[in-house]
Amino acid sequence: MNEIKKSYFNNLEPKSWFLLDGLGALLSVFLLGVVLVKLESIVGMPKHTLYFLAGIPCVFALYDLVCYKLADKNWRTLLRIIAIGNLVYCFISIGLLIRHFHLLTNLGLIYFILEILVLIILVYLELKYASSHNKEND
């Protein structure tokens, strides 16, 4: 069975994936670059690392906006690019978690693990959608 199970995500228009991804990126920017910076002592991740991590989804949000406006026939390739970008961001986050593990509080560790899990699920859904969505919905 190569098709995505019938779900809310399967019913999204292809361009809507960029909107969904972009909104998630903006949420990450806000949480990492504003909220967690103010709560540095509670989460344990250094501010400079939080700002660095917030910069990556800033770029993703811009990419998603451009793709949402311009993606037409090549949306599958563009969706795969952002999915791979999200996966690379997960690996960067994991590396920084390991590097700063001695500083992280339980709350900080929980936040980053949850963010990584959400992104892995998003990457899976994006790649699955791009690979198996019917061409008639282009």
Would you kindly provide a written description of the structure presented here, covering whatever features stand out?
- The protein has 138 residues and is mostly helical.
- It has one domain (15-131).
- 76% of the residues lie in helices and 0% in strands.
- The chain has helices spanning 14-38, 40-43, 47-70, 75-99, 106-132.
- Helix 4 runs antiparallel to helix 5 (106-132).
- The radius of gyration is 16 Å and the shape is elongated.
- Mean pLDDT is 90; it is low at 1-5.
Uncertain segments are 1-5
Rg: 16 Å
Q: Averaging pLDDT over every residue, what do you get?
A: 90
Overall geometry: elongated
Instruction: Work out the helicity level.
Output: over 70%
Portion in strands: under 5%
Q: Give, in order, the helices and strands.
A: HHHHH
Give the beta-strand count. Answer: 0
Pairing-aware structural class of the strands and helices? Answer: mainly alpha
**Overall structural domain count:** 1
